[in-house]
Amino acid sequence: MKPPQTIDCHAAATQLYEYLDGELTAEVEAAVRGHLADCAVCFKLFEFEQAYLAFLRARTRARAAPDHLRRQVFESVLYDKDRTKSE
Amino acid sequence: MSTASSDSRRAFDTEALPHLDTVYRVALRLAGDQSDAEELTQETMLKAYRSWHQYKSGTNVTAWLLTILRHTFINQYRKAKRTGPTVDVDQIESYTVFHQVQEVDPEGRFFEQIVDEEVLRAIDELPEEFRETLVLSDIEQLSYAEISDITAVPIGTVKSRLFRARQALQKVLYDYAIEMGYIKRVER
User: Fold this and answer.
1) Tens of pLDDT along B8-62?
2) What CA–CA distances, in Å, run from B84 to B61, B87, B122?
3) How far is CA A2 from CA A6, A12, A23, in A?
4) Which of A18, A39, B5, B103 has the smallest number of Cβ neighbours within 10 A?
5) CA diameter of chain A
6) How far away is chain B from the Cα of A3, in angstroms, using its nearest Cα?
7) Which stretches within B32-154 are classed as H helix?
8) Under 8 Å between Cβ of B108 and A50
9) Which residue in B has a C-alpha nearest to residue A85's C-alpha?
């Protein structure tokens, strides 16, 4: 097994969002995690950004399509004439 | 023929209609106006229904619907609208807000005082390509690969847009929090 890669603060910071979004390869993710375990400054930055993303999700996710729109969509599909013509 | 048609109708009802909320939420942020968003949603779903035979069952239906939504928006709704202020994303430096607040509020508790409407208003001020990327990622939780498919740009572009959009939005919300007295500005 290869020893885990080591990275510095700059390299960790450039991967920050990819790390928090779960978009890194297992190898790079392990390298970032290793750096965070050793560096209190980066650890705090990552925690701050993680809290920010959680806050964005919590503030924006609640909206659902209004009932009248749901009904309109349902009816327009139900009574659509063009569909059968194009089939 | 009526059997084939009612089968595909059923498939559309089960596979596509449950994503109406997603289509509506993205439409709302793209169009910036409730009545345009409703019209855009309606049109997207009808187009999707009419081209349902082109959808490959079992593939990503959210991405497919959002691609139709995006094309409809670009072709019919984009022009003229949206003359409001936009945030200059080119002025954004990395992690400025954290560096400002790390001694007074390193956990970002001030964010918690900002209400939904204010966050959505700030998102609406982002330039379109940045707003769209942030909405697909942070509101709809899509992966970079899905966003890249929908917006037709390479993954590298998705990453850089997302980075700049998140940092620009954070700065706007931080300035708002200072203005509202949720946090004190730290002179550094």
Assistant:
1) 888 899 999 999 999 999 999 999 889 999 999 999 999 999 999 999 888 999 9
2) 33, 10, 11
3) 12, 20, 21
4) B103
5) 65
6) 28
7) 34-50, 61-72, 96-101, 116-124, 128-134, 144-151
8) no
9) B50
Q: A65 and B114 in contact by Cβ < 8 A?
A: no
| Interface test with chain B among A47, A68, A77, by most B beta carbons within 10 Å | A77
- Convert the pLDDT of each residue in B90-149 to its tens digit: 777 788 899 999 999 999 999 999 999 999 999 999 999 999 999 999 999 999 999 999
- CATH class in words for A9-86: mainly alpha
Asked if residues A72 and B49 have their Cβ atoms less than 8 Å apart, the reply is no
Q: Measure B62 CA to nearest chain A CA, in Å.
A: 15
For the entire predicted model, the pTM comes to 0.89
**Amino acid identity, position B61:** V
Six token digits for residue B33: 């106006």
Distance from CA of A86 to the nearest CA of B (A): 8
Residue-range domain boundaries for chain A: 9-86
Q: pLDDT tens digit string along A53-84?
A: 999 999 997 788 999 999 999 999 888 876 65
Suggest the residue from B12, B98, B104 to mutate for an interface test with chain A (most A CBs closer than 10 A): B98
